[in-house]
Amino acid sequence: MVVLTSVAKSLKNLKIQSSSTHLFRFRSIRTLLLQSASESVKLQQLTDSDSGILEVNLERPATKNAIGKDMLRGLQYAFEAVNKDSAAKVLMICSSVPKVFCAGADLKERKTMSPSEVQNFVHSLRSTFSYLEELYIPTIAVIEGAALGGGLEMALSCDLRICGEDAVLGLPETGLAIIPGAGGTQRLPRLVGKSKAKELIFTGQKIGGRDAMSMGLVNYCVAAGEARAKALEIARDINQKGPLAIRMAKRAIDGGVELDMASALALRKTAMNSSCTPRIGWKAWQLLLRGESLITKASETLHIAAQLIKL
């Protein structure tokens, strides 16, 4: 069954536009690496049957992936590149540093900042994680080892979280006489409930992977070292689904959870209509029920592209 995976192919093979982006093909032809000015963050595209799956890797071993100015720029660059890539369908955020996802903010670097610079940095970090949260494709945080402070807040900004049994998660900021500043106080209660979130933030308690799964903080806790494999399994499953339907489902869920039921159902109707337009979506749905191709004509592909631009 032919499934529409990218409107880009019908729009003159549109690619990510950036003067600082270079494309490298590995010998295994399994991945394409998009290399930015930051050496702390690498964005790669999986290829072959995994085309559509993107992966951000955190690579700052000297600081256990602590987020400083350079890494923040790298994250901003990577997320913007993902958002511009019309062929992207799933994003995984991983660490190339053994036994650590992200240790949080780079406190040593922060000591060199003026108060106004600290304020600007925290604001930029918060905005970056909100941008990640609002990406149109599903996002998966792959957590092996420590995910603390800003590292956990980044994971909370993703749609799904997979961790290994050796994971250590926490928001220890109150021990430094500050509070989580990049969305943790808002996103954590929405996952584990207000009371549990208060306990974790007030005490700065660090929890293991199994406890994180039992309270709903992560979707899966697997054997140490297997988190990426589980995340890739889920990403491949999502990658086979209709991209517009996935996008509209994410929009309906994220928008609807903040609304009363009547308003949420109205939003669902809007999202459903966007994925099932009279001209294309409904026809695609009928073809799907018959086991035929979802999209059959170039003109239909261009119409889908027009619908996406309007969203």
From TrEMBL:
InterPro entries: ClpP/crotonase-like_dom_sf (IPR029045), Enoyl-CoA_hyd/isom_CS (IPR018376), Enoyl-CoA_hydra/iso (IPR001753), Enoyl-CoA_hydra_C (IPR014748). The keyword Lyase applies. It holds the Pfam family ECH_1. Keywords: Lyase. The keyword DNA damage does not apply. GO terms for biological process: fatty acid beta-oxidation. One of its GO terms (cellular component) is mitochondrion. GO terms for molecular function: lyase activity. Belongs to the enoyl-CoA hydratase/isomerase family. This is Enoyl-CoA hydratase 2, mitochondrial.
